[in-house]
Protein backbone atom coordinates (compact mmCIF):
# COMPACT_ATOMS: atom_id res chain seq x y z
CA UNK A 1 0.00 0.00 0.00
CA UNK A 2 0.84 3.68 -0.32
CA UNK A 3 -0.24 6.41 2.07
CA UNK A 4 -1.18 9.97 1.12
CA UNK A 5 -0.45 12.34 4.04
CA UNK A 6 -0.64 10.78 7.55
CA UNK A 7 2.73 12.32 8.33
CA UNK A 8 4.06 14.46 11.23
CA UNK A 9 1.35 15.34 13.75
CA UNK A 10 -1.33 13.24 12.02
CA UNK A 11 -2.95 10.91 14.56
CA UNK A 12 -4.94 8.70 12.21
CA UNK A 13 -2.02 7.94 9.87
CA UNK A 14 -0.19 6.05 12.60
CA UNK A 15 -3.33 4.14 13.55
CA UNK A 16 -3.90 3.10 9.93
CA UNK A 17 -0.30 1.93 9.48
CA UNK A 18 -0.49 -0.28 12.57
CA UNK A 19 -3.93 -1.62 11.62
CA UNK A 20 -2.94 -2.37 8.03
CA UNK A 21 0.10 -4.41 9.05
CA UNK A 22 -1.49 -6.25 11.98
CA UNK A 23 -2.41 -9.39 10.04
CA UNK A 24 0.74 -9.51 7.92
CA UNK A 25 -1.21 -9.21 4.66
CA UNK A 26 -0.32 -5.61 3.79
CA UNK A 27 3.00 -3.78 3.53
CA UNK A 28 3.59 -0.04 3.35
CA UNK A 29 5.93 0.45 0.38
CA UNK A 30 5.70 4.14 -0.51
CA UNK A 31 4.02 7.39 0.37
CA UNK A 32 3.52 11.12 0.02
CA UNK A 33 3.26 11.97 3.70
CA UNK A 34 3.02 15.75 3.53
CA UNK A 35 2.46 18.57 1.06
CA UNK A 36 5.90 19.71 2.22
CA UNK A 37 8.43 17.58 0.30
CA UNK A 38 11.06 17.81 3.05
CA UNK A 39 8.64 16.67 5.76
CA UNK A 40 7.43 13.84 3.53
CA UNK A 41 11.01 12.65 3.02
CA UNK A 42 11.75 12.80 6.74
CA UNK A 43 8.60 10.86 7.60
CA UNK A 44 9.25 8.20 4.97
CA UNK A 45 12.81 7.76 6.23
CA UNK A 46 11.51 7.27 9.79
CA UNK A 47 9.22 4.54 8.45
CA UNK A 48 12.16 2.79 6.79
CA UNK A 49 11.17 3.45 3.17
CA UNK A 50 13.78 3.88 0.46
CA UNK A 51 14.21 7.46 -0.75
CA UNK A 52 13.02 6.65 -4.28
CA UNK A 53 9.62 5.54 -2.92
CA UNK A 54 9.01 8.73 -0.90
CA UNK A 55 7.25 11.51 -2.80
CA UNK A 56 6.61 15.22 -2.44
CA UNK A 57 3.10 15.05 -3.89
CA UNK A 58 0.42 12.46 -4.48
CA UNK A 59 0.27 13.31 -8.18
CA UNK A 60 3.96 12.50 -8.58
CA UNK A 61 3.56 9.30 -6.59
CA UNK A 62 0.52 7.98 -8.47
CA UNK A 63 2.12 8.70 -11.82
CA UNK A 64 5.45 7.05 -10.95
CA UNK A 65 3.93 4.04 -9.17
CA UNK A 66 1.60 3.51 -12.13
CA UNK A 67 4.65 3.22 -14.38
CA UNK A 68 6.47 0.76 -12.09
CA UNK A 69 3.42 -1.36 -11.22
CA UNK A 70 4.81 -2.11 -7.76
CA UNK A 71 1.92 -0.80 -5.68
CA UNK A 72 -1.60 -2.23 -5.25
CA UNK A 73 -3.67 0.37 -3.43
CA UNK A 74 -3.71 3.90 -2.04
CA UNK A 75 -4.70 5.00 1.47
CA UNK A 76 -5.93 8.61 1.63
CA UNK A 77 -5.94 10.25 5.08
CA UNK A 78 -6.21 13.93 4.10
CA UNK A 79 -8.73 16.58 5.18
CA UNK A 80 -12.09 16.26 3.39
CA UNK A 81 -11.35 18.68 0.55
CA UNK A 82 -8.37 16.53 -0.56
CA UNK A 83 -10.28 13.22 -0.76
CA UNK A 84 -11.77 13.45 -4.21
CA UNK A 85 -8.88 14.31 -6.55
CA UNK A 86 -6.31 11.75 -5.33
CA UNK A 87 -9.03 9.06 -5.21
CA UNK A 88 -10.02 9.75 -8.83
CA UNK A 89 -6.39 9.82 -9.98
CA UNK A 90 -5.64 6.56 -8.17
CA UNK A 91 -8.68 4.75 -9.59
CA UNK A 92 -7.94 5.89 -13.14
CA UNK A 93 -4.33 4.73 -12.71
CA UNK A 94 -5.56 1.24 -11.83
CA UNK A 95 -5.19 1.36 -8.05
CA UNK A 96 -7.74 0.35 -5.41
CA UNK A 97 -8.46 2.94 -2.72
CA UNK A 98 -9.00 3.18 1.03
CA UNK A 99 -10.52 6.53 1.93
CA UNK A 100 -11.37 8.27 5.18
CA UNK A 101 -14.92 9.48 5.83
CA UNK A 102 -16.87 11.50 4.79
CA UNK A 103 -16.08 10.29 1.30
CA UNK A 104 -15.91 13.69 -0.41
CA UNK A 105 -16.33 17.43 0.00
CA UNK A 106 -19.73 17.34 -1.72
CA UNK A 107 -22.44 14.95 -2.87
CA UNK A 108 -21.67 15.84 -6.49
CA UNK A 109 -18.09 14.65 -6.01
CA UNK A 110 -19.29 11.50 -4.26
CA UNK A 111 -21.57 10.59 -7.16
CA UNK A 112 -18.79 11.10 -9.70
CA UNK A 113 -16.40 9.03 -7.58
CA UNK A 114 -19.02 6.26 -7.44
CA UNK A 115 -19.32 6.27 -11.22
CA UNK A 116 -15.54 6.11 -11.54
CA UNK A 117 -15.40 3.08 -9.25
CA UNK A 118 -18.00 1.37 -11.46
CA UNK A 119 -16.23 2.33 -14.68
CA UNK A 120 -12.78 1.22 -13.53
CA UNK A 121 -13.90 -1.94 -11.73
CA UNK A 122 -11.66 -1.06 -8.78
CA UNK A 123 -12.52 -1.49 -5.08
CA UNK A 124 -13.02 1.46 -2.73
CA UNK A 125 -13.18 1.06 1.05
CA UNK A 126 -14.51 3.81 3.31
CA UNK A 127 -13.03 3.64 6.81
CA UNK A 128 -16.09 3.65 9.05
CA UNK A 129 -14.07 2.07 11.86
CA UNK A 130 -16.95 1.20 14.14
CA UNK A 131 -18.32 -1.38 11.70
CA UNK A 132 -15.11 -3.34 12.29
CA UNK A 133 -15.89 -4.14 15.93
CA UNK A 134 -16.96 -7.73 16.68
CA UNK A 135 -19.57 -6.36 19.09
CA UNK A 136 -21.03 -4.28 16.29
CA UNK A 137 -21.11 -7.19 13.87
CA UNK A 138 -22.82 -9.38 16.51
CA UNK A 139 -26.01 -7.27 16.90
CA UNK A 140 -26.10 -6.76 13.13
CA UNK A 141 -26.31 -10.52 12.64
CA UNK A 142 -28.87 -10.86 15.44
CA UNK A 143 -31.09 -8.21 13.87
CA UNK A 144 -30.75 -9.75 10.39
CA UNK A 145 -31.83 -13.09 11.92
CA UNK A 146 -34.86 -11.31 13.44
CA UNK A 147 -33.73 -12.28 16.95
CA UNK A 148 -35.45 -9.12 18.23
CA UNK A 149 -38.24 -9.25 15.68
CA UNK A 150 -39.08 -6.31 13.44
CA UNK A 151 -37.14 -3.13 14.18
CA UNK A 152 -39.39 -0.36 15.47
CA UNK A 153 -37.11 2.25 17.05
CA UNK A 154 -33.44 3.27 16.74
CA UNK A 155 -31.50 5.69 18.92
CA UNK A 156 -27.91 6.51 17.97
CA UNK A 157 -25.63 9.19 19.34
CA UNK A 158 -22.03 10.36 19.17
CA UNK A 159 -21.01 12.97 21.74
CA UNK A 160 -17.70 14.79 22.13
CA UNK A 161 -16.66 17.79 24.20
CA UNK A 162 -13.40 18.95 22.65
CA UNK A 163 -15.03 21.97 20.93
CA UNK A 164 -16.91 23.18 24.01
CA UNK A 165 -15.02 26.48 24.10
CA UNK A 166 -14.25 29.12 21.53
CA UNK A 167 -10.52 29.17 22.33
CA UNK A 168 -9.79 25.74 20.84
CA UNK A 169 -7.11 26.38 18.26
CA UNK A 170 -5.25 23.52 16.61
CA UNK A 171 -4.58 22.23 13.11
CA UNK A 172 -7.25 19.54 13.61
CA UNK A 173 -9.81 22.12 14.74
CA UNK A 174 -9.12 24.69 12.04
CA UNK A 175 -9.79 22.53 9.01
CA UNK A 176 -12.85 20.88 10.59
CA UNK A 177 -14.52 24.25 11.13
CA UNK A 178 -13.55 25.66 7.72
CA UNK A 179 -16.24 25.11 5.02
CA UNK A 180 -13.57 25.28 2.31
CA UNK A 181 -11.81 22.26 3.79
CA UNK A 182 -14.50 20.39 5.73
CA UNK A 183 -17.49 20.80 3.40
CA UNK A 184 -21.05 21.89 4.16
CA UNK A 185 -21.09 20.54 7.71
CA UNK A 186 -18.81 20.40 10.73
CA UNK A 187 -20.03 18.10 13.49
CA UNK A 188 -22.45 16.24 11.22
CA UNK A 189 -19.76 15.46 8.65
CA UNK A 190 -17.11 14.65 11.23
CA UNK A 191 -18.93 12.36 13.68
CA UNK A 192 -22.65 12.48 12.82
CA UNK A 193 -21.98 10.54 9.64
CA UNK A 194 -20.43 7.78 11.81
CA UNK A 195 -23.68 7.53 13.76
CA UNK A 196 -25.67 7.50 10.51
CA UNK A 197 -23.51 4.72 9.06
CA UNK A 198 -23.69 2.70 12.28
CA UNK A 199 -27.50 2.93 12.39
CA UNK A 200 -27.82 1.60 8.82
CA UNK A 201 -25.09 -1.05 9.23
CA UNK A 202 -26.39 -2.51 12.48
CA UNK A 203 -30.07 -2.56 11.49
CA UNK A 204 -29.61 -3.45 7.81
CA UNK A 205 -32.17 -0.72 7.09
CA UNK A 206 -31.92 2.58 5.23
CA UNK A 207 -32.89 6.02 6.47
CA UNK A 208 -35.38 7.55 4.04
CA UNK A 209 -36.36 10.89 5.63
CA UNK A 210 -34.82 13.35 8.08
CA UNK A 211 -35.96 16.30 10.16
CA UNK A 212 -32.87 18.21 11.26
CA UNK A 213 -31.81 20.83 13.82
CA UNK A 214 -28.27 21.92 12.89
CA UNK A 215 -26.68 24.46 15.25
CA UNK A 216 -23.49 26.40 15.89
CA UNK A 217 -23.53 26.79 19.66
CA UNK A 218 -20.24 28.69 19.86
CA UNK A 219 -20.61 32.17 18.34
CA UNK A 220 -18.58 32.91 15.24
CA UNK A 221 -18.32 29.35 13.93
CA UNK A 222 -19.14 28.89 10.26
CA UNK A 223 -20.14 25.25 10.65
CA UNK A 224 -22.33 23.27 13.04
CA UNK A 225 -21.00 21.90 16.32
CA UNK A 226 -24.28 20.35 17.54
CA UNK A 227 -26.86 18.24 15.64
CA UNK A 228 -30.21 16.58 16.34
CA UNK A 229 -31.99 14.56 13.64
CA UNK A 230 -35.34 12.77 13.62
CA UNK A 231 -35.16 9.69 11.38
CA UNK A 232 -37.54 7.55 9.36
CA UNK A 233 -36.44 4.14 8.06
CA UNK A 234 -37.51 2.16 5.00
CA UNK A 235 -39.38 -0.44 7.09
CA UNK A 236 -41.51 2.18 8.86
CA UNK A 237 -39.33 2.42 11.97
CA UNK A 238 -38.47 5.78 13.48
CA UNK A 239 -35.37 6.99 15.24
CA UNK A 240 -33.28 9.78 16.66
CA UNK A 241 -29.67 10.71 15.88
CA UNK A 242 -27.73 13.07 18.11
CA UNK A 243 -24.18 14.28 17.49
CA UNK A 244 -22.38 17.02 19.35
CA UNK A 245 -18.87 18.33 19.92
CA UNK A 246 -19.81 20.77 22.66
CA UNK A 247 -20.77 18.23 25.37
CA UNK A 248 -18.16 19.10 27.99
CA UNK A 249 -16.68 16.03 29.65
CA UNK A 250 -17.43 13.66 26.80
CA UNK A 251 -14.58 12.11 24.81
CA UNK A 252 -15.84 9.76 22.06
CA UNK A 253 -19.17 8.50 23.34
CA UNK A 254 -20.84 6.49 20.59
CA UNK A 255 -23.98 4.57 21.52
CA UNK A 256 -26.81 2.78 19.73
CA UNK A 257 -30.06 1.20 20.91
CA UNK A 258 -32.35 -0.81 18.66
CA UNK A 259 -35.85 -1.87 19.70
CA UNK A 260 -37.78 -4.59 17.93
CA UNK A 261 -41.23 -6.01 18.55
CA UNK A 262 -39.72 -8.99 20.41
CA UNK A 263 -36.65 -7.56 22.09
CA UNK A 264 -33.95 -4.91 22.05
CA UNK A 265 -30.21 -4.41 21.73
CA UNK A 266 -28.17 -1.70 23.41
CA UNK A 267 -24.43 -1.12 23.20
CA UNK A 268 -21.91 1.63 23.39
CA UNK A 269 -18.33 2.27 22.33
CA UNK A 270 -16.77 4.63 24.76
CA UNK A 271 -13.11 5.07 25.72
CA UNK A 272 -6.04 6.59 20.68
CA UNK A 273 -7.60 9.63 21.78
CA UNK A 274 -9.38 9.09 25.05
CA UNK A 275 -12.92 7.87 24.60
CA UNK A 276 -12.28 5.40 21.82
CA UNK A 277 -12.83 1.70 22.66
CA UNK A 278 -9.91 -0.55 23.45
CA UNK A 279 -10.21 -2.47 20.17
CA UNK A 280 -9.96 0.66 18.01
CA UNK A 281 -6.86 -0.45 16.10
CA UNK A 282 -8.16 -4.01 15.75
CA UNK A 283 -11.40 -2.67 14.26
CA UNK A 284 -9.40 -0.84 11.60
CA UNK A 285 -7.29 -3.99 11.15
CA UNK A 286 -10.45 -6.00 10.40
CA UNK A 287 -11.39 -3.47 7.72
CA UNK A 288 -7.91 -3.51 6.16
CA UNK A 289 -7.79 -7.32 6.23
CA UNK A 290 -11.21 -7.66 4.60
CA UNK A 291 -10.24 -5.06 1.99
CA UNK A 292 -6.93 -6.81 1.22
CA UNK A 293 -8.59 -10.21 0.83
CA UNK A 294 -11.32 -8.74 -1.38
CA UNK A 295 -8.76 -7.04 -3.63
CA UNK A 296 -6.65 -10.22 -3.78
CA UNK A 297 -9.67 -12.37 -4.67
CA UNK A 298 -10.68 -9.96 -7.47
CA UNK A 299 -7.11 -9.79 -8.73
CA UNK A 300 -6.87 -13.59 -8.92
CA UNK A 301 -10.44 -14.04 -10.24
CA UNK A 302 -11.23 -16.21 -7.23
CA UNK A 303 -14.73 -17.35 -6.33
CA UNK A 304 -15.08 -17.18 -2.56
CA UNK A 305 -18.08 -17.05 -0.25
CA UNK A 306 -16.12 -15.89 2.81
CA UNK A 307 -18.04 -13.48 5.03
CA UNK A 308 -14.92 -11.30 5.12
CA UNK A 309 -15.06 -10.45 1.42
CA UNK A 310 -16.71 -7.09 0.89
CA UNK A 311 -17.41 -6.65 4.62
CA UNK A 312 -16.46 -2.99 4.76
CA UNK A 313 -18.10 0.30 3.88
CA UNK A 314 -17.60 1.27 0.26
CA UNK A 315 -18.53 3.81 -2.34
CA UNK A 316 -22.27 3.15 -1.89
CA UNK A 317 -22.05 3.99 1.80
CA UNK A 318 -19.92 7.01 0.92
CA UNK A 319 -22.59 8.39 -1.39
CA UNK A 320 -25.27 7.72 1.22
CA UNK A 321 -23.19 9.52 3.85
CA UNK A 322 -22.80 12.60 1.67
CA UNK A 323 -26.52 12.44 0.79
CA UNK A 324 -27.36 12.35 4.50
CA UNK A 325 -25.09 15.32 5.29
CA UNK A 326 -26.35 17.55 2.48
CA UNK A 327 -30.02 16.62 3.04
CA UNK A 328 -29.74 17.42 6.75
CA UNK A 329 -28.04 20.75 6.02
CA UNK A 330 -30.76 21.66 3.50
CA UNK A 331 -33.57 20.54 5.82
CA UNK A 332 -32.21 22.55 8.74
CA UNK A 333 -32.52 25.74 6.66
CA UNK A 334 -36.21 25.26 5.94
CA UNK A 335 -38.73 26.79 8.32
CA UNK A 336 -41.90 25.32 6.82
CA UNK A 337 -40.85 21.81 5.83
CA UNK A 338 -40.59 19.21 8.58
CA UNK A 339 -39.39 16.17 6.64
CA UNK A 340 -36.98 15.95 3.71
CA UNK A 341 -36.44 12.74 1.72
CA UNK A 342 -32.94 11.42 1.06
CA UNK A 343 -32.48 11.34 -2.72
CA UNK A 344 -29.32 9.85 -4.21
TrEMBL record:
Query: Which segments cross the bilayer?
Result: none
GFO/IDH/MocA-like oxidoreductase domain residues: 139-265
- Listed InterPro entries: Gfo/Idh/MocA-like_OxRdtase_N, Gfo/Idh/MocA_oxidoreduct, GFO_IDH_MocA-like_dom, NAD(P)-bd_dom_sf
Alphabetically, the GO molecular function entries are: nucleotide binding
Q: Where is the signal peptide?
A: none
Q: What are the residue boundaries of the Gfo/Idh/MocA-like oxidoreductase N-terminal domain, all occurrences included?
A: 4-126
**Entry's Pfam families?**
GFO_IDH_MocA (PF01408), GFO_IDH_MocA_C3 (PF22725)
Q: Which family does it belong to?
A: Belongs to the Gfo/Idh/MocA family.
**PANTHER family named in the record:** CONSERVED EXPRESSED OXIDOREDUCTASE (EUROFUNG), OXIDOREDUCTASE
Its recorded name reads Oxidoreductase
**Organism whose genome encodes this protein:** Rotaria magnacalcarata
